[in-house]
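name: query_chain
kind: protein
chains: 1
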Amino acid sequence: MEIFLQQVINGLVLGSMYALVALGYTMVYGIVNLINFAHGEVLMVGALTSWTVVTALADTGAPGWVLMLISLACAVVVCAALNYTIEKLAYRPLRNAPRLAPLITAMGMSLLLQTLAMIIWKPNPKPYPQLLPVEPYHFGGLVIGVTQLMILGATVAVLLVMMWVVNRTRLGRAMRATAENPRVAALMGVRPDMVISATFVIGAALAALAGIMWAANYGTVQHFMGFMPGLKAFTAAVLGGIGNLAGAVLGGVALGLIEAMGAGYLGDLTGGVLGSQYSDIFAFTALILVLTLRPSGLLGERVADRA
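structure:
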């Protein structure tokens, strides 16, 4: 039973990181019907920016949590500016183009950001400093670290804030109106370009937060680190019902649990033949099953098709 509960904790932590990135995917898709495949690379830029700031300030003697907050602020600014620029220069001119054009552009932007990051930060992996206490908490036979608790708490807080923003604020109403029909929204005084840019900026902030959590949890950063979390987060968004905020979180948590359980139990049952290195198999198999049985995802899609 303790092993099962420990795998649940591990799955919730992993799924929470997927969920943060999936929120960015699903917000952008809900408004402009675009899959921003460069979103994982925004996560990578956030993590590398944080590493740069933390390394530069390491000799100041500041507490680890202060360094993390400073690096988070810097990463959010850099990622927000990057995503705003990407949307304005790469996606906005293709807004009325056939859907294949922005999709190919997004994939190209992903490769471009990887290459630029490799040039700026060099291709070798870099150790991310331990900024939070490493001594874990023990609850009976269960073990959970401070970083993992921070990841779980931040994900819950971000979901609550995003639900409030979308459902209770003026910006949220403008987002919903733009998602329904941007031309009619413009006639009602909404500025679709501003709303779409704000959505990309918010998504970038979430990606920066997820990137720092990923780096803090795994202790390393590199230019290629955003590809697999981005792909898994897209899978989570589709799994939960892309275009749905709660669905993105549900899909991320479900994906994390599936990976943790699959890697933990099947690894033992098969003598390590299907261990953690095959966790991707479990995630994408679950996606195929869900899309076969329920193509709209677990919570369905609540975004109406545009006329």
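note: Residues 302-307 have pLDDT under 50 and may be disordered.
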